[in-house]
C-alpha cells in the first residue's frame, strides 16, 4: 500500500504538470492567433484572411482541451488524499464530484473536442464559408447539438446508479455503473470509470473515426504537396489511434480496484493518450495554419520586392504587343506572387497576369503581363509582328 500510494501521488503530480503545459500551449496559440489577425488587419492582406477564418473554432478547441485537463486534475488521487478542500467535503459531495466528472469529461469535453477537430478539418474543404462569422457560430452550434446525445447517455448512467444500489440482487455487475469507490477506514472517495460510460464513448469514437478517415481521404485528393500530405496522415492516424487507445484503457480499468497500482497505471495512460491527441490537434490545426500564413506573407513581400525591381529595369512599352507604352510607375505598383491566365473579352487574347495581391481595383481594364499564343498560327503571327524588319 505505501508503494501504491507513492506511485499514485507521483502520477497525480505528473498529471498536474502536463495539464499546466497544455494550458500554456493553448494560451500561446491563442495569443499567436490574435497576433496573426492584427497583422492581417494592419496590412490589409485580405487574401490571407481565409486562413484566419475559423479562429473562433480554433480557440473553442483549445477551450475544450483545457476544460478536459482541469477535470482530470479534479479526478486525480493527489487532491483527494492530500487536498484539504476535497477532504473537508462529505462522502456524498465527493461522490457527486465524481459524477460531475463523468458527465463533464466523458459526456461533454471529450466529444466536443473530437467534434471540433472534425469541423476544423472540414473547414479546409470550404473555399469561402470560413471567412464569415456565421460559419463559426453555426459550427459551434453543431458541435453542441451533436454532443447532446452523448451528454444525455452519460447523464443516464449516473442517474441509474442510485436505483442500482437500492436493488442489491441486480444481475448487472457494479463496475458497469459505478462512478466512485470508497477506501476502507478512510473519508476519501476515489473516482472510477463506469464500463457503460466507456462503451458509449467507444461507440461515439468508432462512428467519428470512420467519418474522420472518409474526410481525410477527401482532403488527400486535393492536396498536391507531399509535406501537407504527411501532415494529414499524421493528424488522422494519431487522433484515431490515441482516442481509440484511451477507450480501450478505460475499459480495462474496471478489472482492477481504484486503489491498486494497475488501476493508476491504466488511468494515467488513458489520460496521456487523450493529452497527446489534444496536443497534436492544437499543433496541427491551430499553430501550423497561422505559422504557414505568416510565412506566406513574408514570401509575398519578397516576391513583391523582386517584381518591383524587375519592373523598374524593364523597358517602357513591353506590357502588351500592339498597345501604346504605359507608365512604368503604374507598372511597378502592380506586384504579385502568382500567375494566372486571364481572358480579355475586348481583344480575344489570353494574358498571364500578375495581380493576385494588387492595390488596384479588380475591375480595372489595365492588364500587366504578356500574351499567351496557344496555336502555331498565332505564334507565327506574333514572330512576324515583333521581327526587326517590321
Beta-strand content estimate: under 5%
Assign an overall shape: elongated
Segments where pLDDT lies below 50 for 5+ residues? Answer: 316-390
CATH topology of the largest domain: Rhopdopsin 7-helix transmembrane proteins
* CATH architecture call of the largest domain: Up-down Bundle
Largest beta-sheet details: 3 strands, antiparallel
SSE string, helices as H and strands as E? HHHHHHEEHHHHEEEH
Could you tell me the number of beta strands?
Answer: 5
CATH class of the largest domain: Mainly Alpha
Overall residue-averaged pLDDT value: 75
Span between termini: 100 Å
Tally of DSSP helical segments: 11
Class from secondary-structure proportions: mainly alpha
Describe what you observe in this structure:
This protein has 390 residues and is mainly alpha-helical. The protein folds into 2 domains: 2-300, Rhopdopsin 7-helix transmembrane proteins (Up-down Bundle), CATH 1.20.1070; 316-385, no CATH class. It has helices spanning 2-43, 55-75, 77-82, 84-88, 91-123, 133-166, 195-222, 226-252, 261-313, 328-332, 376-385; strands at 180-182, 189-191, 340-343, 350-353, 369-372. The strands form 2 sheets. The protein has a 3-stranded antiparallel β-sheet with strand order 3-4-5, with no helix packed on it. A hairpin with a 6-residue loop joins strand 1 (180-182) and strand 2 (189-191). Helix 2 (55-75) packs parallel to helix 6 (133-166), helix 5 runs antiparallel to helix 6 (133-166) and helix 6 packs antiparallel against helix 7 (195-222).
